[in-house]
Specification:
Chain lengths: 245, 83
C-alpha cells in the first residue's frame, strides 16, 4: 500500500531527553523506506535534507518550560534557516513546544487543564488538507492518533487565534469520534480545540498527537502514516512555498 | 548582588494549579480566599554590575529565556547589598 514516490532525506533532531526519536527513525527508515539521519542538537546541519523532524520527549527534562532550553541548542539556528528557505519541518509533541519557543510557530503550551499527564488515543479532525503534511487527507477527515503529554494546552491571544483562522493555519483539532469539535472532546483545554498548527507559509507544522506511534499495521492503527505519506507526496510535487506564492 | 525573579501566568489566563489549591484551602475552612495563583521564583547571583545595569540584563534574560511572554508576566527585585 505504500506509495514509494521518490527518495526523501529526513533528519531527526535529537535533544538530550528526546524519547520519540527512535520511533520516528523506525517509521521513516523501515516503514517508509526513506533515508534518515539522527542529528545531535550540538551539531550543525551539514547535509541537504528534505524534511526535519523535531521528535517528542522531554528535552532538557522540560526544565523551566518545555522546549525553552532546547530552543537555544546550536542546531536550532540551522532549523530556523532551513524553515526560512521553505524546508519542511514537523514538530511532534515536545518538538511542537520547541518550535513555538523558537518562534517558528505562534502561541505557547500551558499545563493541561486537568493538571494530569494524558496518554490516550484521541480523534483528530483535519481542518486544512492543503498543507504538505495533510495533502493526502480530506478536510473534515477524522484520524485516531495517540496523545501523551502534560503540557498540551494550546494558548494564544485572541488576535493570534483570529490570524490562525484567517490564514487557515489550524491544521488539526481535537474532536469527538463523530467529528464534533466540542469542549467534551478537548482533552487538555486547548484554545479552539487546537491539536496542530502550521506557520503562515505552511512548511512548518507542530502537532501534539504522535503520528509515529500509529503508522504500522502491527500496532493496529495506521492513521499516522497518512501524514508521513503526505510529506512524501508533497516532496514529489512542487515546493509548497512556490505553490502558495 | 542578588536578584529574585517572579514569573506568573498572565492575569486572565486560567491557572489550574492555583485553582486546585484554592479549592483545597477553601475545603480547609479558609472561606475568605478569593484567588490563588502559582508561579515560579528564580534566584540569581550576579557579579560586577551596578543596579541599573543588572536590571537591564535581567530584563533581557527574562525576555530571551526565563519567561515566555506569550503566557507569562515577570518582575524582579534586586538586592545590591548582597556580595
Amino acid at each position: 500500500m505504500l506509495n514509494k514516490l521518490q527518495n526523501m532525506k529526513f533528519g531527526i533532531i535529537v535533544f538530550p531527553g528526546s524519547n520519540c526519536d527512535h520511533d520516528c527513525y523506525h517509521i521513516i527508515k523501515h516503514v517508509l523506506e526513506q533515508e534518515v539521519d539522527f542529528l545531535w542538537h550540538k551539531d550543525e546541519i551539514k547535509k541537504n535534507y528534505d524534511c526535519l523532524i523535531l521528535p517528542g520527549g522531554f528535552s532538557y527534562g522540560d526544565y523551566l518550560r518545555p522546549g525553552a532550553i532546547s530552543r537555544f541548542s546550536p542546531i536550532m539556528n540551522g532549523v530556523i534557516k532551513f524553515a526560512g528557505k521553505g524546508g519542511l519541518v514537523i514538530g511532534i509533541c515536545n518538538g511542537f513546544q520547541v518550535l513555538m519557543e523558537a518562534s517558528l510557530l505562534p502561541g505557547a503550551m500551558m499545563r493541561n487543564k486537568s493538571l494530569k499527564f494524558i496518554c490516550k488515543n484521541v480523534t483528530v479532525k483535519v481542518e486544512n488538507s492543503s498543507t504538505p503534511f495533510t495533502r493526502n487527507l480530506k478536510d473534515g477527515e477524522l484520524l485516531t492518533i495517540p496523545i501523551a503529554h502534560a503540557d498540551g494546552n494550546y494558548f494564544a491571544d485572541q488576535k493570534t487565534l483570529n490570524k490562525l483562522k484567517e490564514n487557515k493555519q489550524i491544521v488539526f483539532k481535537y474532536a469527538s469520534p463523530d467529528g464534533d469539535v466540542s469542549d467534551d472532546a478537548n482533552p487538555n483545554g486547548s484554545c479552539l480545540n487546537i491539536a496542530g498548527i502550521c506557520n503562515e507559509e505552511g512548511n512548518v507544522l507542530g502537532m501534539m498527537p504522535h503520528p509515529e506511534r500509529c503508522s504500522e499495521s502491527i500496532l493496529g492503527n495506521q492513521d499516522g502514516l497518512k501524514i508521513f505519506q503526505s510529506i512524501l507526496s508533497a516532496n514529489s510535487s512542487l515546493n509548497f512555498s512556490d505553490k502558495s506564492s | 548582588m542578588n536578584a529574585k525573579i517572579y514569573i506568573t501566568l498572565k492575569k486572565g489566563i486560567l491557572e489550574p494549579q492555583g485553582k486546585a489549591i484554592q479549592h483545597s484551602l477553601f475545603d480547609l475552612g479558609y472561606k475568605e480566599i478569593q484567588e490563588v495563583r502559582v508561579g515560579k521564583i528564580i534566584e540569581i547571583k550576579m557579579k560586577g554590575t551596578n543596579k541599573e545595569e543588572a536590571g537591564n540584563k535581567l530584563k533581557e534574560m527574562c525576555k530571551k529565556l526565563l519567561a515566555n511572554t506569550v503566557i507569562e508576566d515577570y518582575r524582579f527585585e534586586i538586592d545590591p547589598d548582597v556580595e
